[in-house]
Automatic annotation (TrEMBL):
Recorded family membership: Belongs to the phosphoribulokinase family.
Protein name (Swiss-Prot/TrEMBL): Phosphoribulokinase
Catalytic EC class: transferase
Pfam families the record matches: PRK
EC id: 2.7.1.19
UniProt catalytic activity: D-ribulose 5-phosphate + ATP = D-ribulose 1,5-bisphosphate + ADP + H(+)
GO MF term list: ATP binding; phosphoribulokinase activity
UniProt keywords, alphabetically: ATP-binding, Kinase, Nucleotide-binding, Transferase
């Protein structure tokens, strides 16, 4: 656990909604006057798009059908661990951007499918904010969970996650439904082995559950709206969480287990503010004291 320079990690599969959740964090940071440096998990992919394609082909030729962006070996997790450790100890570190599309290319001057150069973090930040696929990984070589002080999981039930991914990748990344379906299938092995184990280590999980029929996610015409969903919020350690306060402040919420609360989908932003603001405040206060 870093104290002097705390780290928050938000972990979710591709399309889970981690970028959307990042906006809520940004609002909290702005309101509380907290200076955060942000890093994206995609910055720590091992390969650019062309090299990834070649690596996939090479491994497939050798009979490995399980390799994907979700795999540990497709990412520089040792470098991510080094950045977490360095930030926790010194408040310094470095990151880069993986450029997904033309809009990002126009901003960065780097062609889609490539990385920008590594750049040092701005000095004088209060905390490090990570958003990506691997923020709570523990495996034979790295322990990222140990280095992050507040770990959040963003995990819609899987049909909804697929719908969100298909719609986002079609709308903003130019992929067809068939191409996204192939990607989902190719990533399934690593999804089970590298992504899901993290959600037993995260401190709080936000799981969006649609209340409309999503039986065939591959033909869904739109993403179920917040009004068409509930969110299950689960605390790994419920001690110190004021559930009566949350239930009274969030209209339509109720508790389903001693560590779980269910809220209407359109209250996710409010719930995050109520739950996360005091936790973030405490992290920053303890850090200033340390
Ligand atoms: N709570 C929500 N309600 C409705 N739509 C949502 C919600 N969260 C995410 N979405 C939608 O799901 C899609 C994917 O979300 P987002 O881009 O945040 O995913 P992501 O986890 O950041 O994906 P990646 O890591 O691949 O970039 C977007 O179209 C987004 O608008
Ligand atoms: O969302 C992703 C991982 O979270 C992307 O799939 C990954 O960053 C690479 O994208 P692409 O294959 O389109 O270059």
């Amino acid at each position: 656990m870093s104290k002097r320079f705390p780290i928050i990690s938000v972990t979710g599969s591709s399309g889970a909604g981690t970028s959307t959740v990042k906006h809520t964090f940004e609002q909290i940071f702005r309101r509380e006057g907290i200076k955060a440096v942000s890093i994206e998990g995609d910055a720590f992919h091992k390969f650019n798009r062309a090299d990834m394609k070649a690596e996939l082909a090479r491994r497939a030729a050798e009979g490995d059908q399980t390799f994907s962006h979700f795999s540990y070996e497709a990412n520089e997790l040792a470098e991510l661990e080094r950045v977490f450790r360095e930030y926790g100890e010194t408040g310094k570190g470095r990151s880069r951007t993986y450029v997904h599309d033309e809009a990002e290319a126009a901003k960065t001057g780097v062609a889609p499918g490539n990385f920008t150069e590594w750049a040092p973090f701005e000095e004088g930040s209060d905390l490090l904010f990570y958003e990506g696929l691997h923020g709570s990984v523990v495996n034979d070589t790295v322990d990222l969970a140990r280095l992050a002080d507040l770990k959040i999981g963003v995990v819609p039930v899987i049909n909804l996650e697929w719908i969100q991914k298909i719609h986002r990748d079609r709308a903003t990344r130019g992929y067809s439904t068939e191409a996204v379906t192939d990607t989902i299938l190719r990533r399934m092995h690593a999804y089970v082995h590298c992504i899901t184990p993290q959600f037993t280590r995260t401190d709080i999980n936000f799981q969006r559950v649609p209340v409309v029929d999503t039986s065939n996610p591959f033909v869904a015409r739109w993403i179920p709206t917040p009004d068409e969903s509930l969110v299950v919020i689960r605390f790994r350690n419920p001690r110190g969480i004021d559930f009566p306060y949350l239930v009274s402040m969030i209209a339509g919420s109720w508790m389903t287990r001693a560590n779980s609360i269910v809220i209407p989908g359109n209250k996710q932003d409010l719930a995050m503010q109520l739950i996360l603001t005091p936790l973030i405040e405490r992290l920053v206060r303890d850090a200033k004291r340390a």
